[in-house]
Amino acid sequence: TGGQEVSAFRRELRNVRPPVKDDGGALAEALTSIDALTAKAIASIEAHTETARDKLAELNISVGTQRNRLKRLDVREREAKDMIARAAEDAKARLRDKR
How far is Cα 4 from Cα 58, in angstroms, rounded to an integer? Predict the structure, then answer.
C-alpha cells in the first residue's frame, strides 16, 4: 500500500524546479506546487487504502486475520504518508537553499 504512490510523488517532485532568478513570487509558487502535489499524493494513498479495505471486507477470512490485515494496511498507509511528508520537506528545503 502506498509504494506506487510514493514513487509517483517523487517523480513529480523532480519536475518542480527552483526559480531561475531570485524571485520570491516564483519560490512561493514552487512551494505551493509542492503542497498541491503532497495533498494529491496523500489523497491517492487514502483512496488506495480504502479500496484495499473494501476488498478485504469481501474476503471470507476469520475476524482475527481480517483485523491483522487491517492493522497492516493502517501501518503501511501511515508509513507512505510519512515518506511523502519527508520527501516534500526535503524538496522545499532544497528550493529554499538554492535561493
Answer: 24
